[in-house]
Amino acid sequence: MIDAVGRPQSVLVLGGSSEIAQATVAKLVPARCRTVVLAGREGPRLSEAVDRAKALGADVAEAVAFDATDVAGHGAFADRVFDRFGDFDLVIVAAGLLGDQAAEEKDPVSAAAVLTTNFAGLAAAMLAVAGHLRRQGHGRLVVLSSVAGERARKANFVYGSSKAGLDAFSQGLGDSLVGTGVRVMIVRPGFVVGRMTEGMSPAPFPTTPEAVADAVVHGIETGASVVYVPPVLRWVFAVMRHLPRAVWRRMPG
Amino acid sequence: MSVPRGRRALLTGWGRTAPTAAEVVHAVHPHIVDQALGMAAKGSGGRTRGIVARGLGRSYGDAAQNAGGAVLDATWLDAIHQVDLASGVITVGAGVSLQTLMERLVPLGWFVPVTPGTRLVTVGGAIAADIHGKNHHVDGGFCSHVLEMTLVTPTGTTTVSPASDHDLFWATAGGMGLTGVITRATLQMTPVETSYLLVDTERAPDLDTVMDKMLTGDDDYRYSVAWIDCQSTGSRLGRSVLTRGDHARLEDLPDRLRLAPDRARAFVPRTLARVPITPPSGLLNPLTVGAFNEFWFRKAPRHQVAKPHHMTGFFHPLDGVGGWNRLYGGRGFLQYQFVVPDRHGETVRRVIERLSALRLASFLAVLKRFGPGDPGPLSFPIAGWTLALDIPVGFDRLDVLLDEFDQEVAAAGGRIYLAKDSRVSRPAFRAMYPRVDEWLAVRARVDPDGVLQSDLGRRLGLCTDPPPPSTASGRKARAGAGPDRPPPARPPRRKATGGTSRTRSPSTSPPSPERTGS
């Protein structure tokens, strides 16, 4: 159960090898999160993440195979993990592809892969998980969106639109869950310096997986519904959203 | 009879933190309790989400919540079955509030044996939390005055007294509703002549003075409590107002009351004001609380002897303000209450020192001394000092601070109060309540399938844990709670005894449980 000061005792991560998710788990386990289930593509990265959660002192730390694009399998996946591990106080949706915009513009199939993973696949998985959370009558669903979804830019509109879809979906899902004891929190980080963005030059107000993890933990504590990391981006994008398109499309990057 | 079906509602405790959704089943008749337990035992999809009884929702944390399961609104069981005015022994439904008992019986010369700081608790809740009052050092906890109770468990309905089933009786005392649903209880009331107390009030300039006064003087008073100003620092650290008193006899009262015995015995509580809205969090901050504390301290007489106070003002000052818990804002608040043995009075000082250094806005800080505890393995009181603090949620390092207090309290051989708790860790809880396994054994006897569940129970590991992952053999399944155990042979279910609380007197209807959300 999440306690009065917002500490969960169990967490399920969709996209368990995500750096942000791992940084979050590293903060949750010392604060009495006893069960850590990392769902993702099986491989060394996922098993290393499990080992790290164990080393931090989690009573249960396990990897579970999860493929965001396997939409038909999401129902059975959710049934399986909730049946096996019981309630989850917190579910973090952290899977996602950044993609390569230049390549995608030439190859619609790879663009569709980004859209399917980041939006359609995760949306279906969230519905499957939300059904279980609704039945258990409590829990938080944390969705890693992005400020890129606030307004699609010509430099990364494939990724941006996938996050825009996920973000809008999560807002609607959150509203539909009001009164069920389940709450949805949307996290909108800016440019996160890490494995996913390696070799890219950072956008203004860059952040780190640790900073995003801090914001996630703090958001769970305060019961926030939308969190920007760094927080200044809330105001930056309040302006950006309303720039004339002629100006917006000339934005660098 | 119709099948008990409930409406899904979001519930919180009095602290308004951590809302969860449950099916609220109204216990309009004692038989519903039995049926609701049967339905909860069946569960859905092979797994039960359980059931727990809820009274007036005055537990601060998650004791009367059951996410995804059923919550039995026991305030319907509010019949007064039997009153013996000669002996003061009464038998009442578990949903009767202490307020109702006071309204009805104080004018007839009988007062509840133990009352907490609010009279808006039910008899069932009072037993489940084994509540204490300002008279604990003289009279002990609530359950010491319970002669017997009717308990509906998943394995049948029984009437339990300390003599008939010592273990079950005392596991239920302070058992937070996880050993069964209490449907009725027989209590020994306390004789009183009037609804007034003669109260001595004095200010103490610092913590040492007040603790010294309590150590040397409390035994001369039936009721004793100190309000502490947690905002003052330095030489004024822990300055307090100590109020102590005893029930007034008619002849002790001034003429205006003495010559009008009906007035001297009247018990007509009024709600003076209601908090109409939930103000933003932060209304109660160091500044406002500091100002309030200064006022409260200065308002108290320096030294006043034998001043008549009405019971309502002396015992339940906050009940005059309806919904005062909303003052803490949307994020709610928690109460931290601990007890440490007498020789560890220093722990009290260190906690107050740290709170005042942080200027944490705690405006309700109450210190009192407990007498010896009763035999309940989860019953809170033990002989020593108990300090209760209301703290708004939102202070940045509150979680870490309270974890550190837990360590200190556990190291001193003390414990925190489950009826107030909403955040203690499992290891700290186990260190504080070393007899928890004894309690779990009794629970396994009456509820082998883990039908009685609550959020508090899940949080602290008092309910059956989910089955361990099939691949990991390392996780130990609790004795008698493993998933591979064959289904136990159930004794035939007995019908609940009696059934007289079908009617519901409008004058005694307690308010419905606190709900939040839409």
Task: Write structural notes for this entry.
The complex is a heterodimer of chains A (253) and B (518). Chain A has 253 residues and is α/β, with parallel strands linked by helices. Chain A has a single domain, classed as 3-Layer(aba) Sandwich (Rossmann fold). Chain A is 46% helix and 15% strand. Chain A has helices at 19-28, 44-56, 74-85, 101-106, 108-136, 157-176, 209-222, 233-240, 245-248, and strands spanning 10-14, 35-40, 60-65, 90-93, 139-144, 182-189, 226-229. A 7-stranded parallel sheet of chain A has the order 3-2-1-4-5-6-7, with helices on both faces. The longest helix of chain A has 29 residues, at 108-136. Chain A is globular. The model of chain A has no long low-confidence stretch (mean pLDDT 95). In chain B, helix 12 packs parallel to helix 13. Chain B has 15 helices and 21 strands. Chain B is globular, with a radius of gyration of 23 Å. The model of chain B is unreliable at 466-518 (pLDDT under 50). Chain B is α+β, with helices and mostly antiparallel strands and 518 residues long. Chain B folds into 3 domains: 7-74 and 435-460, Uridine Diphospho-n-acetylenolpyruvylglucosamine Reductase, domain 2 (2-Layer Sandwich); 77-192, Uridine Diphospho-n-acetylenolpyruvylglucosamine Reductase, domain 3 (2-Layer Sandwich), CATH 3.30.465; 196-425, Vanillyl-alcohol Oxidase, Chain A, domain 3, CATH 3.40.462. In chain B, strands 16-12-14-13-19-20-18-21 form an 8-stranded antiparallel sheet. Chain B has a 5-stranded antiparallel sheet with strand order 5-6-10-8-9. Chain B starts with 6 loop residues before the first strand and ends in a 58-residue tail after the last helix. Chain B has helices at residues 30-42, 98-105, 123-128, 136-139, 166-172, 207-217, 255-258, 261-264, 286-299, 311-315, 345-358, 398-411, 426-432, 436-446, 455-460; strands spanning 7-11, 20-26, 51-54, 70-73, 80-84, 89-93, 110-111, 146-153, 156-160, 181-188, 190-191, 196-204, 223-228, 240-247, 273-274, 303-310, 321-322, 333-340, 365-370, 384-392, 415-416. At the A-B interface, loops of A face strand 2, helix 12 and helix 15 of B.
